[in-house]
Amino acid sequence: MVSLVLCHYLRKAGKKMILDPKFTVVNIAGEYLAIPVGNENVATSDMICLNEATAYLLEQMKTEKTEQELVQLLTAEYDVDPKTAANDIKETMRRLASYGVVKQ
Question: What's the pTM value of the predicted model, to 2 decimals?
Answer without folding.
Answer: 0.79
